[in-house]
């Protein structure tokens, strides 16, 4: 496979968009895990279909930043979304609000801390349509202040990084995986951390990791940062999962996601209500079991998607936009409410 970025829709054709809710079917007995139940909650579509973007919930607001749009395999200035928008998750005004935009970026990470929204890395396309691709991983790190409605540039990453992911644990930001484009391609085998509560803090490297992956999902759950799926530096999709024990500062191999290797490419994950959930390209929803020994498949999305984001607010988990193997880029949001565990022996 080529070392150039594989666009969110890979080689699959585009079709029309569907507005859908999670329709979940139990694939395991109730003794193994409870069912995932659909919810009637709805949110308005995004302004445009996008994939490989940044999204985060901060307070009662959902923020979505830029991403890839247009046709598969095309990387141009025009195929990067020019939007940074916010949606109130409470109240009666469920409309997307335009916010001040920074650079248009693909595979950017968005995180929240202390009432601020942080933007980490991402990929620029500097070429016009018809020109040779000119792609650059940026080292940008910036903070959006909702009260002032402004961006502030912060200490840059040590190097350009895109197709990565990021998570905040306590007061510390972790940046995991990805690669550097622009000149010679570099795959990262070391991840980063930064204290957000210390204005004088510097970027630190985590211990070397036993993998090099991009297009992965990163999430923290019960003191462990999980790096799920993606594409290896050998240009192979994978369902591999690795965990970083924050207290021990060590990496370990965790159970792989179910399914063929391609299912891990562009997956998404979230820690919600004491449960670690992941969604894969075929639409399946998986949960890591209590002893971290295996993933249970607990349902299936009505609208399979990858290069999407999972966010939560209250008791609801939302799948945001992404791409579909048959339909291309999506603008829809799908919701999932998880029923409380009731079966014996499944409490974490």
SSE layout and pairing:
Layout: E1 36-38, E2 54-58, E3 61-65, E4 84-88, E5 96-98, E6 109-113, E7 116-120, E8 123-125, E9 135-137, E10 141-145, E11 150-153, E12 165-169, E13 172-176, E14 179-180, E15 186-187, E16 192-195, E17 204-205, E18 213-214, E19 217-221, E20 224-232, E21 237-245, E22 250-254, E23 268-272, E24 275-279, E25 284-288, E26 295-300, E27 309-313, E28 316-320, E29 323-324, E30 328-329, E31 333-338
Antiparallel strand pairs: 1-31, 2-3, 3-4, 4-5, 6-7, 7-10, 8-9, 10-11, 12-13, 13-16, 14-15, 16-17, 18-20, 19-20, 20-21, 21-22, 23-24, 24-25, 25-26, 27-28, 28-31, 29-30
Structure, explained:
The protein is mainly β and 348 residues long. It has a single domain, classed as Neuraminidase, CATH 2.120.10. The protein has strands at residues 36-38, 54-58, 61-65, 84-88, 96-98, 109-113, 116-120, 123-125, 135-137, 141-145, 150-153, 165-169, 172-176, 179-180, 186-187, 192-195, 204-205, 213-214, 217-221, 224-232, 237-245, 250-254, 268-272, 275-279, 284-288, 295-300, 309-313, 316-320, 323-324, 328-329, 333-338. The model is unreliable at 1-40 and 342-348 (pLDDT under 50).
